[in-house]
Amino acid sequence: MMESEWRLDRWLAKAGIGSRKDVKKLLKKKRVKQNGQVVTDASAKVHIEQDTITLDGNPITANTGPIYLLMNKQKNRVSATTDAENVTVLADVEEQLRADLFPVGRLDKDTEGLLLLTSDGDFAHRLTSPKYEIEKEYEVTLDERPADEELQALEKGIQLKDGTVTKPAKLQPDDESDKPIVTITLTEGKYHQVKRMFGALGRRVTELKRIRIGSLLLDEDLKPGEYRELTSDELENLFRSIH
């Protein structure tokens, strides 16, 4: 279940009244009431199971179903709900949302970029299931530019040091960058897979950033650690790929 207590501005935004900026304008104009009393404080708490919120006298109902967030994960965060030794990605999420959220799959502690957070277990399971072969694309910075034959070996599938053989991958070197950058697209998600694949060639990954999951692109307007809700189109496209 969702957290029963919400900030008023976020709850109104969830109800489709407008952005949180729009909501604050409505509050300033004294158009919103909570249990019959005018409320102007955006941070006021709403208890969704007992409070009645109205806009211009009309009752408002928010969709408090599953949550789907797109995060630009920052480094030095682990993709977990709890961790005894490290800060988790949930530390960057508003407190009232944390109880039911969990990351979809994992990004390493020192990896940044696109991470989905949700309260929908079936959605997370399907999106990470090998059955659906959802593509994940990464921008990889290496210690040295790989040779063409090395990239071709990764494209065909390569045997890792533990004997595991990877599925074919798509690779594209960034010939315009001064740095040795390659984008790699995978349909599987083995432990430390990108690092292990390049490590099997004797190359070291110095920076790793996920930029795409299926049809969903990293929102470059989000600073590391920031997040937003998925749009209806983004969510619809993802659901279409796992059904």
Plain-language structure description:
- By secondary structure, this protein is α+β, with helices and mostly antiparallel strands.
- It has helices at 8-14, 20-28, 121-128, 148-156, 193-199, 232-241; strands at residues 5-7, 32-34, 37-38, 45-47, 53-55, 58-59, 68-73, 102-103, 112-118, 136-142, 170-173, 181-186, 205-213, 216-217, 227-229.
- Helix 1 (8-14) crosses helix 2.
- The chain is elongated and about 70 Å long.
- The mean pLDDT is 91.
Strand content: 25-35%
Chain oligomer state: single chain
Broad shape: elongated
Number of helix segments? 6
- In total, how many beta strands? 15
Mean model confidence by pLDDT: 91
Structural class based on helices, strands and sheet pairing? alpha+beta
Mind telling me the C-alpha Rg?
22 Å
The largest sheet is: 9 strands, mixed
Low-confidence stretches: none
What percent of the residues sit in helical stretches (DSSP H or I)? 10-25%
Task: State the end-to-end CA separation.
Answer: 24 Å
H/E series, N to C?
EHHEEEEEEEEHEHEEHEEEH
Describe the structure in brief.
By secondary structure, this protein is of the alpha+beta class.
Can you tag this structure with a few keywords?
243 residues; 9-stranded mixed beta sheet; elongated
